[in-house]
Specification:
AAA family ATPase, 9 helices, P-loop_NTPase, 42% helix, 269 residues, DNA_Partitioning_ATPase, Rossmann fold, alpha/beta, MipZ
Length: 269
């Protein structure tokens, strides 16, 4: 069975699709077979990212490693069993179609609460939650007292992950390895940055996730998407000497892949 990686966060703009594409492409470059799904059926950012990559490689005559991508199959309502949810069936069919010859399946979830996202989280062997370094985003994980910084009750997204963990436990499946990746962390030692780190450390012990460094705010991420490129492709497209920012970004990706602790994966880039 393929190891399933789910990239999820109920808030848009946290860098889910950028994170998904970089993880998937890095795994392909390291020789692993991977299939990808995008559960944001309307916006389809990961799907478009991979479409852009395929089109750019063809137009430029490049051979770039491209993760396999599958859309959810269309099915007839009449084919469902009594009480069966159509989205459950579509996701199950898509995952089953990729399982046969894949080491990993990566599922990119929408930035909203949907049935598809709920079910996908229950399938996760590894859950990656990109989180902007802001207490606005932290609020999806837990409430925090503005007066003394104490952490209150877990919030809506944490509750969904807890529910997914319970479903897996009842099914006798291994627990989810949950990683929260801090994105857009400022370079300076700001007060907010320190407070976020402290709050995440406290919450991680309470609800069971590992907080790791994600991607810093960099212009290059906005420039890569239209061509479907990642940080690992720069030399393939003629960038002979990486600038300091690009080198630092590649190190962040290497550190993230290492932190995921995926079976059989050792970063070699």
């Amino acid at each position: 069975m393929a190891h399933i990686i789910v990239v999820g966060n109920e808030k848009g703009g946290s860098g889910k699709s950028t994170t998904s594409m970089h993880i998937a492409t890095a795994l392909v470059r390291m020789g692993h077979s991977i299939g990808t799904l995008d559960l944001d059926l309307r916006q389809r950012s990961l799907g478009r990212y991979i479409d852009n990559r395929r089109a750019y490689a063809e137009a430029e005559g490049l051979t770039l490693p491209i993760p396999e991508y599958a859309d959810l199959p269309e099915i007839e309502q009449s084919s469902l069993q009594d009480g069966e949810n159509i989205f459950d069936r579509r996701l199950s069919m898509a995952v089953s179609g990729l399982h046969g010859d894949k080491d990993f399946i990566l599922i990119d979830c929408p930035g909203s609460h949907t049935r598809l996202s709920q079910v996908a989280h229950s399938l996760a062997d590894t859950l990656v939650t990109p989180l902007n370094d802001s207490f606005v985003d932290f609020d999806l994980l837990a409430r925090i007292d503005p007066a003394d910084g104490s952490i209150g009750s877990p919030s809506v997204y944490s509750a969904m992950v807890w529910n997914a963990r319970q479903i897996r436990a009842r099914a006798g499946l291994p627990p989810i390895d949950w990683i929260v990746a801090r994105n857009r962390v400022g370079a300076q030692a700001m007060h907010n940055k320190k407070k976020m780190a402290e709050a995440l450390e406290k919450l991680s012990r309470r609800i069971g996730f590992r907080a790791v460094q994600g991607f810093s705010e960099r212009v290059i991420f906005r420039e890569l998407f239209p061509r479907g490129l990642t940080l690992l492709d720069l030399r393939d497209v003629g960038v002979e000497k990486l600038n300091i920012s690009n080198v630092a970004a590649r190190q962040e990706l290497r550190d993230l892949i290492t932190a995921l602790r995926l079976p059989g994966v050792t970063p070699d880039f």
